[in-house]
Amino acid sequence: MSSLLHLVKGEIIRLFKYKIVFFGILVSLIWLLVIGFQTPEQALAIIPLMIVTDSGLMAIILIGASFYFEKQENTVKSLLVSPVSLVQVMIAKIFSAIFTAFISLVIVVGFAVIYHEIDVQILKLLLFMFSIVISHTAIGYILILRSKDFMSMLVKYAGLMLLFYTPTLLLALEIVSNDFEILAFISPSYSGEFLIKSAFVQLGTFKQVIAFVYLMGLGLGIYGGYVYTKFKKVAIEG
Question: What string of pLDDT tens digits covers the 238 residues of the chain?
């Protein structure tokens, strides 16, 4: 346990060192400006998308930047040859992503609750945010571990973001009927947005369970089946 706490502490220190927390907060402050100019109803409609963006898609960028900074400084390589397990290293990195997502969540939702007096189920919101972080960072590590540098990862990330948000756009523009909404849940971002929305308004319980189990299963499956076996090799090769 002491080794894990030491790793977590190191990850959080690096988040501040690389100014990742700073840029995460900056994005959240931009969201506040957007929310401030909306009506409560409009704010309620866009907040779930903001949270998914920060907890999921933005998390991919942040862990990518952190990973490549660490590779340049040989920090990851040093960790992997130290007396800690790879599982502990991965847990620490997941926790760092949860840490940045939590800061954003507090800023955005806290402002919405105070400014627009929006009601929210806190425990449900935190649980669903966790599932979004797990699933999206796992997918993010696939991009990271299959890219030579940060720029090549960003190119792949742009395509991924377009793919993930396509179902939301198709349904919002009514290009696709709501009868096919269940197919949209294949997109982790759409599933995450649905879950976050359910923390603010009443939505179908069955769909919430499906979306949550899907995100957790997807994330843990990728971490266990791909990231765990590939991470050490890529980090050591440099």
Answer: 677 888 888 888 888 887 888 888 898 999 999 999 999 999 999 999 899 988 988 888 888 877 777 777 766 666 666 667 778 888 888 898 999 999 999 999 999 999 999 999 999 999 999 999 999 999 999 998 888 888 888 888 888 888 887 877 777 666 777 777 777 888 998 999 999 999 999 998 999 999 999 999 999 999 999 988 888 777 666 5
> What tokens were used for 34?
């957007």
pTM above 0.85, yes or no: yes
CA distance 195 to 209: 9
Q: Which two tokens stand for residue 90?
A: 């991965």
Distance CA 212, CA 207 (A): 8
Cβ neighbours for 204, distance < 8 A, ≥ 6 positions apart: none
Please name which of 172, 190, 188, 192 lies closest in space to residue 222, comparing C-alpha atoms: 188
Tally of CB atoms within 10 A around 4: 16
Query: What number of residues does the chain have?
Result: 238
Q: What are the residues whose beta carbons fall under 8 Å from the beta carbon of 7, sequence distance 6 or more? A: 79, 84, 88, 89, 91, 92
Locate tokens 């396509």: which residue?
166
H-helix segments, the chain: 2-17, 20-36, 40-52, 58-72, 75-80, 86-116, 122-145, 150-172, 181-184, 188-198, 205-222, 228-237
